[in-house]
Design a protein that fits this description.
The protein is mainly beta. It contains three helices and twelve strands; from the N terminus they run ββαββαββββαββββ. 30% of the residues are buried.
């Protein structure tokens, strides 16, 4: 069954057992964009979008994600999902979420997904995929390409 996690005094979110809640408190900060990763079929559009972000800093604060070009994206509330290595995820080319950095629990990949609504839609990322229990944060830049986000060291 589920449980409640309190991360901010007034913010509760419903969680599935063994999944931490990807709340503002856990995602807030400066994140450095890692190199693009993909498995299955992807397109040049996704790789180009990822290349423009690699090595740059994304800021998460006040319920939004700000891209390096200052485009602001509102973050929806986290939705608990279970991803699988299947045709719906990767198409007929196959692939594994483990190749993208997620850690499986058995054959499942429990994650939380935060949809992004950006002020500028062209080349804007689609969603954050968070595996709080393992500290994995992926930014889905579209067309089958993802970039890992790494919390920047405090200065």
């Amino acid at each position: 069954m589920g449980r409640f996690n309190t991360i901010l005094p007034a913010a509760l979110c419903w969680c599935i057992a063994n999944i931490g809640c990807a709340q503002e408190a856990t995602l807030a900060g400066n994140w450095v964009v890692g190199g693009a990763v993909s498995t299955g079929i992807s397109s040049d559009v996704g790789w180009d979008a990822a290349g423009r972000l690699e090595g740059k800093t994304i800021v998460v604060a006040d319920g939004k994600l700000t891209l390096p070009d200052q485009t602001e994206c509102a973050m929806d509330r986290p939705v608990a999902e279970v991803r699988h290595d299947d045709m719906w995820s990767f198409g007929s080319a196959g692939g594994s979420w483990a190749d993208l950095g997620l850690v499986p629990t058995g054959i499942d990949y429990p994650v939380e997904v935060l949809a992004l609504v950006c002020a500028r839609d062209a080349d804007a990322p689609i969603e954050l995929i968070v595996q709080s229990s393992d500290g994995v944060v992926l930014l889905d830049v579209g067309d089958g390409v993802y970039v890992p986000l790494h919390l920047a060291p405090s200065t």
